[in-house]
Amino acid sequence: MKQFPLLFLLLIVSVSGTRAQGQPTSAPALLSVDAKGIDALRAKHKGKVLVMNFWATWCTPCVQEFPDLVKLQKSYATKGLDVVFVSIDDDDAKTKQRVTSFLRKQKALPPSYIKSGGDDEQFINAVSSEWSGAIPATFIYNKEGTLVKTKAEELNYESLKALVEKTIRDK
């Protein structure tokens, strides 16, 4: 009889570490990225179409478009598309926790990034010298890593899908 509580406790611990789909409940990976890391981040996704979205938890249009970006991420993951989220929220422990919680709630696939300290203008220019820094901002790169489209506005799923499908089709 004394073994039952221990067995029950082990069962609860093992079940609580996974979701119904078998995915870990741990927080999504949230990595820091600075101006120097932007090029490496883009290069890491060469060979696939890349959608890089810059957003913040305090930005209402960013939050409103986020579910459509996650839907795009999941719908096209097997079709040669990577979606990368880069939060421009402050890079401190409390804010990272808020960003991670938001990503978990949105069911965004990891990893995601948060802009680390440094000069904002340098970071913006590392992304694109044509970008004002306004968010939400979405940059679409072809498989060769060339920027093909910039949208500094809220996008919906249909417009994202059209941009991505055109980029995937283009050789």
Question: Can you tag this structure with a few keywords?
Answer:
171 residues, 44% helix, six-stranded mixed beta sheet, disordered N terminus, alpha/beta, 6 strands
- Tell me the fraction of residues in β-strands, as a range: 15-25%
Number of helices: 6
Structural classification: alpha/beta
- For the termini, the CA-CA separation is 67 Å
User: Main sheet?
Assistant: 6 strands, mixed
Summarize model confidence as the mean pLDDT. Answer: 86
Number of strands: 6
Rg measurement, Å: 18 Å
Major sheet: order of its strands? 1-4-3-2-5-6
Q: What are the secondary-structure elements, in order, as H or E?
A: HEHEHEHEHEEH
- Unreliable parts: 1-25
In short:
By secondary structure, this protein is α/β, with parallel strands linked by helices.
Can you put this structure into words, describing what you see?
By secondary structure, this protein is of the alpha/beta class. Helix content is 44%, strand content 19%. It has a six-stranded mixed β-sheet. Helix 2 (35-44) runs parallel beside helix 5 (120-127). The termini are far apart. The model is unreliable at 1-25 (pLDDT under 50).
Ordered list of secondary-structure elements with their pairings:
Elements (H helix, E strand, L loop, with lengths): L2 H14 L13 E4 L1 H10 L4 E7 L4 H17 L4 E7 L5 H14 L5 E4 L4 H8 L9 E5 L5 E5 L5 H13 L2
Parallel strand pairs: 1-4, 2-3, 3-4
Antiparallel strand pairs: 2-5, 5-6
Helix pairs in contact: 2-5
